[in-house]
Amino acid sequence: MKSPILRESELSNVDTFESNTNKRAGNIVPVESGNYTIHNITSGALIDSKLYAQSDWKELILEYFFELKKRGTTVKLEVYCSFLQFVSCSYVLAVVPQQLEKAGYDPHAVTCIVALTCGIGSILCGLLANLPFIIVPPTAVAIFFSVYIQENKMEINHANLAVILTGIVTILLGFRPIGRFALFFIPGCIQIGVAVGIGLFTALAGSTDINLVVTGEYTIVDIGLVTDTVLIAMSGVVIITVALHYHVKPAFALSIFFTTIVFWWNSDKWPNGVVSMPKFDSITPHSFVPKDIVLCFDLSTLTVLFVNGLINTLGDLSGLTRPNGDIPRSRWLYVICGAVTIISGTFNGPPVLISPESAAGIKAGAKTGLSTFLCGVWFLFCIFLGPVFSVSGTVYGPYSLCAMYFMAECYCC
Known about the structure:
Elements: E1 5-7, H1 15-18, E2 21-24, E3 27-30, E4 37-39, E5 46-48, H2 57-66, H3 75-89, H4 92-101, H5 107-129, E6 135-136, H6 139-152, H7 156-173, H8 176-184, H9 188-209, E7 213-215, E8 221-223, H10 228-245, H11 251-267, H12 290-318, H13 331-346, E9 353-354, H14 358-364, H15 369-381, H16 386-389, H17 397-412
Helix pairs in contact: 3-14, 3-15, 4-5, 4-6, 5-13, 5-15, 6-12, 7-12, 7-13, 9-12, 9-17, 10-11, 10-17, 12-17
């Protein structure tokens, strides 16, 4: 006898599992075989009830949202990867405010809005997209945004308006016809090359933060002096490299702990405190100017290349890419990035996209949105930890350099 199908939307009563019955339209129908099948509405997969015979309601909820068993992972591994992803991506809380401060932004307010948007974006990504991709303002985009404001002498309110418009455009790209139309004009080789380029740009950002690369006297860039900061950062790279070679999972955690403590001890720049009240600056309404539209167009173009390149690369790295090249629920990423970018622009923040450093958690085994969801929770706590991230962003240089390797690995190895 073919076992009946029980939809997840009808599983409000967990006792149904224990009584071997099938709940349909409010009627309890006995199941002669003693088994039933759950129909996963989201993925369309059929899951045998035997897997859940001994499960409690917490495990059922986790499986409903994140499909842990289907993707071959565990709660313990996803929790560990969430911490690793947070450690790998948390440098944006120090680096992005430093970059925008040069353009006239309040660094403390930027730290708070970055933590808020990272938290909201990552939680939504975990729940809606179920992908191990962390949502943060990438340093490469933040550097471009800051330099553009300085070079064109834009007012902060006009720059924020361009960010809001970029968020609206990004949401529209989440609709399949519009997204495919935009990508139609971008050759596949460029989409793939952008992933490697993002890694190189991120590595350059990390190198400039530790002054390993400086502005050259006769060339555009030059090698900087070997300072204590450079030695500390490179020691972090060595720790990560050796740990990964011997398959030590907390490689990034060990490196960040070591480099942070050594940097604070060497520079004698310890945090003035740990907790502070959050601060948010909102945009002042004003009229459009041509520079707003130009910056919006530049940021939108960068968003398409950045997000699409990272979706393809991180999807391949995590093994979630389907045979036809699609990644499940990847369109949600455009909608989520657009929504949090609108929030960020409203409160004097940069565009918020996908983090290349998500590769660190994926390499450690992250396969579902549970790690992303928990990472978002860690970011929300950081709204109150402004003094900790105001000391220096130089200790995060090793992660930017390692992100270059992870981004290029899928296509060059």
